[in-house]
Design brief:
The complex is a heterotrimer of chains A (460), B (202) and C (215). By secondary structure, chain A is an alpha/beta fold. Chain A folds into three domains: 250 residues, Rossmann fold (3-Layer(aba) Sandwich); 96 residues, Alpha-helical ferredoxin (Fumarate Reductase Iron-sulfur Protein, Chain B, domain 2), CATH 1.10.1060.10; 68 residues, no CATH class. Chain A is 50% helix and 11% strand. In chain A, α16 packs across α18. Chain A is globular and about 90 Å long. The N and C termini of chain A lie far apart (59 Å). In chain B, α10 links the parallel β5 and β6. In chain B, α5 packs across α7 and α9 crosses α10. With 202 residues, chain B is α/β, with parallel strands linked by helices. Chain C has a single domain, classed as Rossmann fold. In chain C, the strands form three sheets. Chain C has a six-stranded parallel β-sheet with strand order 1-12-7-4-2-3, with helices on both faces. A four-stranded mixed β-sheet of chain C has the order 8-5-6-9. The chains are: A alpha/beta (460), B alpha/beta (202), C alpha/beta (215). Chains in contact: A-B, A-C. The interface between A and C is large, with 99 and 75 residues. β9 of chain A pairs antiparallel with β9 of chain C.
Chain lengths: 460, 202, 215
C-alpha cells in the first residue's frame, strides 16, 4: 500500500531528481503552451474530446461488441481478459504457440499495469523494451516515473555509464545523439530478427476495428510491423466510436503530450493486411478494474484519460516529488484519481490527498477531466472507509463549534488562553500533536487578541 | 451588515472528505445569509466553496452562491471602483492564489486595486501562478511536499525585493507569512484588504 | 490455447459488468463539434505552411516541378552517397532517376530492406497545419516496412494533395480507414534524455520531402 507522504519525503531529499524534474517539466510545459496557443479552437477540441469520451463510456458495451466484430472481420483474433492474470496468460499462450522465447515490446502503461514482463519472464520468455527510456530503465532494473518521459529522473551521465556497462560495444560520450545511436545499433538486430511483437494502444476504433498508436522514435512501428505475430493489449476504455473521431484526439494528444503539433509517427492498422505487417494479429481487451471505475458515476471521468501527461508537468506536487512517490504505474494528478479507483481506495488511501487542489491539472487536461472534483469525491470515500479516526472526531468537533456563533466565540477565547505557553515573540514556532507538521517549516500566527466580530460590534 | 450568527463555510471539511459536516455548514450558511443581496468575503477560496461547490452539497445554495463575491471582485467588477483612496508607500508583490485564479476567477481585479494605491510600487512575482503549497490539510498531511513548494514560493517573493507579499486568501497568507518568518526574512504577508485599508493618516 | 469456454465467459462477464456499471446512469449530452473543419482553402498558403512545419521538425524540403522529380531525387541521393534506392510497386516510372540502382520491393525481407540506402515513395495526402505526410498503402506508397527500415525516406507530395488541417485529412481518409495508415511528421526522434530532442532513432533518420507542382 502506498504511503505518499513517506515516499515523497524520500524523493524530496534527492536534489538531483528535483533539478532534473524541474528542468524537464518546465521545458515541456513551455512547448505545450506554445503549440496549444497556435490553435484558435483548442477549447472546442477539448469539449469535443470530453463529449466523445463520455459517449464511449455511456455505451461501452455496444462499442466493445462493435469493435470486436469489426476487428474479427479484418482478420484479428480478439480476446477478453477480466484481470491482469488472464491477460498475461493470453500473451504467454500466443508466445508458446509459436515457440517464441523473446518478444519485442513498445512502451505501454497498460502492460506495466498488469506486470506483463514479469509474467512472461516466469514463463521463460523475455520481453525486450524498445522505447529508449524504457530500455534504460529495463537495463538498470529501474521503473518509470513519468507517463511520457519514463526516465525523466535520469540524466545523460547516468545513461552513458549504464550503456557503457551494458549494450555499448565501444567508448561513449554523454552526447544524447551518440547515446541514441548506441540504442539504435543494439535494437536494430533485435527488430530484424523479432518473431513476436507486443504493444498497447492509444485508441481502438469501434466502427472499423482499427488500432491507433502514436509515438516518436519508430520503435513502435518496428514492433507492430516487422514481427510476423503481434499482440496488442488495450484497456476497454480506449475505444472511440468512429474513425473520424480520431481527428479530435490526434490534435489533442500530441500537443498536450510532447508539445508537438503532431508526433513523428502515428500508426493505424486494422486486423491483418496480406503482404503488409504481421500476418497473425491478436487483440486483448482488458478490464482489470475498469468496470469498477465505470460503476462510479462521479469517478468514471478518470477513464476519459488519453495518457498525455500534461497534468503531471503542471502539478506542483508531481514536479517536486516525481513519479515514484505515487507508488503506481499512473503517477501525478491522474494517478491520484485513477489508481485508487482501479485497485480500491482502501489500497491507496493517501493518493487522493496528494494534491493541494490547485486546479492546474484541470486547466490543461485535453479531455477536461475535473481532477480536483474527483479528488474530493475520493476523499469522502476514504473517510467513509476509514470510519472513526481521531481526525473524524476533530472534524466533527469543529463542525459542532461552527454550528453556532456562540460556540465559535467561546472556542476563540479558549484558543487565546491555550496558545499562551506556545507564543514566543509574537509567533508560534512549534505546535503539538498532528499539527506539528505545520511548524516544521513555518511559524504560526497566534489567534488575534481581538476578533473581527468583537471589533465590528464595538465600532462607533 | 455583519450577521453575528455566521461561522465557517466548511471548506476545510469538504476538502478533507467530510461531506456531511460540510453540508450541515452549507445549510447554515444559506440560513444566515439567504436574505442578503450581496455577500462579500475577503477569502477567495471560501467564495469558491460557496459559489462553485455548495450546489453539489445542497441544491438550494445555488441561489445564494450567485450573490457571493470576493472583496476585489465586488469592488472592481460589481461596483466599478478601483481607487479606494489608500496610501501604502511600500514595494509590494502579488501572489494570485490558486482558488482566486482557477475557481473563483477574480481575474486582474486585485491588481487593478493595487495599481491605484498611492505610494505603492507593484512588482511582478516570477512563477506567480504556481501553488504556494498550502492546500488546507495538505499543509499538515503532506508537510514535506508543502514546505518544498513553500520554499520555492518564498524564494520567488524574496527575489522581487518586495517588502510585502499580498494575496486574497488568508489561509495561503498564513502559510506564506509563516514560511517567510521562519526563513528569517523581513518580508511580510498582508491581505489585500489590509493594504487597501491603509491611509496617509494611519 | 486458453479454453474457448473461459474466453466466452470472460467476454460475457466483462460485458455484464459494463452493463451493471451503467445501470441507471443518465445519458450524456450529444457531442458538440464546434472545432474548425477546414481553413480558408488558400492553396498557396497551405503549401507554404506545410513546408514551414516540415522544416521546423527537421525534415529537408525541396519545392520542384513534377517534371524535375528524377533530377531532384538524383540530387538528394548524390548528396548522401545513396547508390541503392528502394521503390514500391506503383511508383510512377517518370519519377525514377536513371543514375541510381532502383530496387523494386517485391516482398523484400527485413534484412534486405536494411541493406537499402534509402527509399522513395508517393503519399496519399499531406496536412499543412501539422507538417504531416499520410501514407495509406496506395500505389507508389509501399507497405509499412519499406518506409521504416531504410535510413532515408524521400517522399513526394503533390501540391494538390495538401489539406489544411487534421479534420480535412480525415474527410479524405474515411474510405481507406481499414488500410494500414502511417502519419509521418518529421524524422524519427526522441526526447528521452533530459528532454533534448535527438532526430533519428529507429525510423528513417533523414526525411526529405519533395513538394511537386504540376503547373
Amino acid at each position: 500500500m502506498t504511503d505518499f507522504p513517506a515516499a515523497a519525503r524520500v524523493e524530496l531529499a534527492n536534489g538531483q531528481l528535483r533539478a532534473n524534474l524541474h528542468h524537464a517539466t518546465q521545458t515541456i510545459r513551455a512547448k505545450r503552451a506554445g503549440v496549444v496557443a497556435e490553435l484558435p479552437d483548442w477549447e472546442e477540441l477539448r469539449e469535443a474530446g470530453r463529449g466523445i469520451k463520455a459517449d464511449v463510456l455511456a455505451r461501452l458495451d455496444e462499442y466493445l461488441v462493435q469493435f470486436e466484430s469489426a476487428a474479427q472481420a479484418a482478420g484479428a483474433q480478439v480476446h477478453w481478459a477480466r484481470d491482469a492474470a488472464e491477460a498475461n496468460a493470453i500473451v504467454v499462450e500466443v508466445a508458446r504457440d509459436h515457440g517464441v522465447s523473446e518478444v519485442v515490446k513498445m512502451k505501454s502503461l497498460t502492460t506495466d499495469e498488469i506486470h506483463l514482463n514479469d509474467a512472461l519472464a516466469a514463463a521463460g520468455i523475455s520481453a525486450l523494451e524498445t522505447d529508449f527510456a524504457e530500455l534504460i530503465l529495463q537495463l538498470d532494473g529501474d521503473w518509470s516515473s513519468h507517463i511520457l518521459v519514463p526516465a525523466i529522473h535520469r540524466n545523460r551521465t547516468e545513461i552513458r555509464d549504464l550503456f557503457a556497462r551494458t549494450i555499448a560495444d565501444g567508448p561513449l560520450t554523454d552526447d544524447p545523439s551518440e547515446l541514441a545511436e548506441a540504442a539504435r545499433v543494439y535494437l536494430r538486430e533485435k527488430f530484424l530478427g523479432a518473431r513476436m511483437g507486443v504493444s498497447g494502444a492509444n485508441f481502438g476504433v469501434a466502427e472499423t476495428g482499427t488500432i491507433c498508436i502514436v509515438e516518436s522514435e519508430g520503435n513502435g512501428r518496428m514492433c507492430t510491423t516487422l514481427p510476423p505475430v503481434l499482440v496488442s493489449i488495450l484497456g476497454i476504455e480506449k475505444l472511440v466510436p468512429s474513425f473520424a473521431d480520431l481527428e479530435v484526439f490526434l490534435q489533442l494528444l500530441p500537443r498536450s503530450s510532447t508539445g508537438e503539433r503532431m508526433n513523428p509517427y502515428t500508426s493505424l492498422w486494422t486486423g491483418v493486411t496480406p503482404g503488409d505487417g504481421p500476418q497473425e494479429m491478436h487483440i486483448v481487451l482488458l478490464d482489470a478494474g475498469r468496470t469498477r471505475v465505470l460503476a462510479d458515476e462521479v469517478g468514471r471521468v478518470a477513464l476519459h484519460c488519453i495518457r498525455c501527461s500534461a497534468c503531471l508537468n503542471v502539478c506542483p506536487v508531481y514536479t517536486r516529488t516525481g513519479g515514484h512517490a505515487y507508488g503506481s504505474v499512473y503517477p501525478g494528478p491522474i494517478g491520484a484519481i485513477l489508481t485508487p479507483q482501479l485497485i480500491g481506495v482502501d489500497q491507496a488511501p493517501s493518493l487522493p490527498y496528494a494534491s493541494t487542489l490547485c486546479g492546474a491539472c484541470y486547466e490543461v487536461c485535453p479531455v477536461k477531466i475535473d481532477i480536483p472534483a474527483v479528488l474530493l469525491h475520493l476523499r469522502s470515500k476514504v473517510v467513509e472507509h476509514k470510519g472513526a479516526t481521531p481526525e473524524r472526531l476533530a472534524m466533527r468537533a469543529m463542525g459542532w463549534v461552527f454550528g453556532s456563533a456562540r460556540r465559535l466565540r467561546f472556542a476563540q477565547r479558549l484558543g487565546r488562553v491555550a496558545q499562551r505557553p506556545l507564543v514566543r515573540g509574537g509567533s508560534i514556532r512549534r505546535l503539538p500533536g498532528p499539527l506539528a507538521g505545520w511548524t516544521q517549516g513555518r511559524t504560526m500566527r497566534p489567534v488575534a487578541r481581538e476578533s473581527f466580530r468583537r471589533w465590528w460590534s464595538r465600532r462607533p | 451588515m455583519f450577521p453575528a450568527e455566521q461561522t465557517c463555510c466548511g471548506q476545510l471539511h469538504l476538502n478533507s472528505g467530510y461531506r456531511d459536516d460540510a453540508a450541515a455548514l452549507a445549510r447554515r450558511f444559506v440560513e444566515v445569509f439567504g436574505e442578503y443581496d450581496a455577500i462579500v468575503s475577503p477569502s477567495s477560496s471560501c467564495v469558491g466553496t460557496v459559489r462553485e461547490l455548495y450546489p453539489q452539497l445542497v441544491p438550494e445554495a445555488a441561489r445564494v452562491g450567485a450573490r457571493v463575491f470576493e472583496l476585489s471582485e465586488l469592488l472592481v467588477n460589481e461596483l466599478g471602483v478601483d481607487d479606494v483612496g489608500a496610501y501604502f508607500p511600500h514595494r509590494v508583490t502579488y501572489h494570485p492564489t490558486c482558488h482566486s485564479l482557477r475557481v473563483t476567477r477574480v481575474g486582474d481585479a486585485p491588481l487593478r486595486l493595487l495599481r491605484k494605491v498611492r505610494g505603492l510600487e507593484l512588482v511582478e512575482l516570477p512563477a506567480a501562478d504556481e501553488c504556494c503549497g498550502f492546500g488546507g490539510t495538505f499543509a499538515v498531511k503532506n508537510a514535506d511536499t508543502s514546505i518544498a513548494m513553500l520554499a520555492d514560493k518564498c524564494a520567488s517573493i524574496v527575489s522581487t525585493g518586495a517588502s510585502v507579499c499580498s494575496a486574497v486568501d488568508g489561509s495561503c497568507l498564513l502559510h506564506i507569512g509563516g514560511g517567510l518568518e521562519r526563513q528569517g526574512t523581513e518580508v511580510r504577508a498582508l491581505h489585500l484588504a489590509e493594504i487597501l485599508a491603509s491611509t496617509e493618516d494611519a | 490455447m486458453v479454453e474457448p469456454a473461459a474466453m466466452s465467459t470472460a467476454r460475457e462477464e466483462i460485458l455484464g459488468r459494463v452493463r451493471d456499471a451503467l445501470e441507471g446512469s443518465t445519458a450524456p449530452e450529444p457531442v458538440v463539434r464546434a472545432y474548425r473543419r477546414a481553413g480558408d482553402g488558400d492553396r498557396s498558403q497551405a503549401v507554404e505552411l506545410l513546408c514551414d512545419r516540415l522544416v521546423d521538425y527537421k525534415a529537408e524540403v525541396r519545392r520542384v516541378a513534377e517534371s524535375d522529380l528524377p533530377a531532384a531525387i538524383a540530387e538528394v541521393c548524390a548528396a548522401r552517397s545513396v547508390s541503392r534506392l528502394g521503390v514500391p510497386d506503383g511508383l510512377p516510372h517518370e519519377w525514377r532517376p536513371a543514375s541510381i540502382e532502383i530496387v523494386e520491393d517485391t516482398g523484400l525481407t527485413s534484412r534486405e530492406l536494411d541493406g537499402l540506402d534509402g527509399v522513395v515513395t508517393a503519399c496519399t495526402l499531406a496536412i499543412a497545419e501539422t507538417g504531416t505526410l499520410v501514407l495509406a498503402a496506395g500505389p507508389g506508397e509501399g507497405r509499412r516496412a519499406l518506409t521504416l527500415v531504410p535510413d532515408l525516406h524521400i517522399c513526394v507530395v503533390k501540391e494538390s494533395q495538401i489539406v489544411d488541417g487534421v479534420p480535412a485529412a480525415f474527410d479524405h481518409l474515411g474510405p481507406v480507414a481499414q488500410r494500414p495508415l502511417t502519419l509521418v511528421s518529421g524524422p524519427s526522434a526522441t526526447s528521452d534524455i533530459e528532454l533534448s530532442r535527438v532526430e533519428g532513432v529507429h525510423g528513417p533518420r533523414q526525411l526529405v520531402v519533395l513538394v511537386a507542382s504540376t503547373g
